[in-house]
Fold this sequence. Notes:
It is a single chain. By secondary structure, this protein is an all-alpha fold. About 70% of the residues lie in helices and about 0% in strands. The chain has helices at about 10-25, 60-80, 90-100, 110-135, 140-160, 160-170, 170-200, 205-225, 230-260, 285-290, 300-340, 355-365, 370-415, 430-470, 475-480, 490-525, 530, 540-545, 550-655, 675, 700, and strands at about 40-45, 50-55, 85, 280. The strands form two sheets. Strands 1-2 form a two-stranded antiparallel sheet. The chain is elongated, with a radius of gyration of 62 Å.
Amino acid sequence: QSAVNVPRDFEGCSTLRKYFGQLHYLQSRIPMGAEQEAAVPIAWTEIFSGKTVTHEDIKYEQACILYNLGALHSMLGAMDKRVSEECAAGAFTYLRDHFPHSYSVDMSHQILNLNINLMLGQAQECLLEKSMLDNRKSFLVARISAQVVDYYKEACRALENSETASLLGKIQKDWKKLVQMKIYYFAAVAHLHMGKQAEEQQKFGERVIYFQSALDKLNEAIKLAKGQPETVQEALRFTMDVIGGKYNSAKKDNDFIYHEAVPALDTLQSVKGAPLVKALPVNPTDPAVTGPDIFAKLVPMAAHEASSLYSEEKAKLLRDVMAKIEAKNEVLDQFMDSMQLDPETVDNLDMYSHIPSILMEKCAALSVRPDTVKNLVQSMQVLSGVFTDVEASLKEIRDLLEEDEAQERKLQELLGKVPPPQGSPPPPSPGLAEVSKECSKYMEVHEKASFTNTELHKAMNLHIGNLRLLSGPLEQVRAALPSPTLTEDDKQVLQNLKRILGKVQEMRDQRMSLEQQLREMIQKDDITTSLVTTDRSEMKKLFEEQLKKYDQIKVYLEQNLAAQENVLKALTDANVKYAAVRKALAEVEHKWNTTVQTLVASYEAYEDLMKKSQEGKDFYTDLEGKAARLLEKARAACQAAEANRQQILEKEMKKQPPPRPTAPKPALQKKPPELEAGGLDVGDLPPLGSLVLSELPEELRSL
């Protein structure tokens, strides 16, 4: 009802557009077309004949609304300021191109063409006036004016059609005369500005012919303007003054000054029109114009089916794109794996400028224990002292046993007994046998522990220097860590490689981003509403138009994929130059890591060294006590064995016959026969342990 009684303002245009859009939504769901189940009679009155025309077709309702929209726009345009290049031709153009022309005579093809070109011509007039007020270049103004002429010529052709003439009746002649007048008038304006351009280019002969042509066409316009309002007559007179003045001045100057030949008009290049106006577009599905679809919940099955087909088209597009991406990614991954270039570690120069955190922790831990090295050295010194004491005790025991064994052997020889074979000691006394057994056991334990002790000292000597370093100033620690020495060329090679690796990563990130954007676009792309309002025959075309929205992102992806070859080539060249630098950096990094690990190992070995040192001290302290007791026991046993040997020797002496008294001899010159035969000779006796002559029995002293 609002659309039928529409107010004659821009709000009325909005109402007509909304109603037209909702009719479009309705007819795509309800069968209200010609000869369809829900078709209803629709009646409108023709504008020229006044007759009422009725059709049972919802498209007739839409066509009439469109016609009225164009008519209302033309009325508003006539009332508005003449500064806009938008015009009412859009509604008439959409009506001509999308609806049948048989509904009524005022919607015939010729009438619609007439309306379209009249609207475009008047809009171009507005643009022409604006261009002249803005003092645009003469050639541009001439082209704009030439386009006004072209639009009015098309309108004139439509007016000359017999069907149009019979429909319009008397007004056809009036309109035709007015349109022809405008054709001549704006042709004159076009040639006026072509003459002005010739004047600017100092082509004085051309200037004369253009001004003359403009004057001729203006005279034709004046002839056709009879009966027009006074405002039109006044405009024509003003234009005559301008063109006439220009022509007279140009002709006079050329005749008396320039003397250039005046060419024929048909030898000059014709002025080509410049269509710069635009028809207001009509889009029945634009929600900004038509508002929300009030039939949105009514989705026909055909629309669902079409939506599934569109989804398959989207999936096909995504598969094609992803196949290209995956192929390129596979090549890129294989290439980067073969290069073995990690962008995060290819330039590790920063690691050499500071002490690693793990070493800082160790230095901090040692800083609160300043006596670390001192304690370790003292602990090892104590261990060495105890070790030495144990070794001395065991050596003394061994010496006592060897001495006792030697005395026992001598005694056996003295008594004339056959000594045991060389290397086989005589059987010791039970006490000494036990001492010897224990001594052997302790010696074995000591030898094993001695090896451990030696290894412990080696470990301490290995770590003590590192611990001193960690306990010292941080500058010394930093100085102890290896660092690379690179030339300026080496640094340049490194920077170039980093830059290209950055490009590789940038290419990867951009590719992932574009892929994600494409997936999100496809996921959000739902054209069901458009499918509902689209004719089945137009589905394929709609799909093609809708899929064009992915063209831009596909172009970006194609550019990204195409760039990969150049990037990898540049990376190959950079890697060749980087080979020598890479080797040097790898060696320094290995040394650096080894040094750090060694220092950390020394710190971690400290507690273990202290623990083992304490265990060694405890072990040797215990062994020292046992060795001391065994030493006392060995001394006592040796003294007992010595006393026993003395008793045996005394008994043997008593068994000998008493000697005959003789004068003492000054010296023993010759051995008695019995001694030579193996008897006893005190001079031949070896000293028996701590035995001295004063301690011999009385009967032996004389011997």
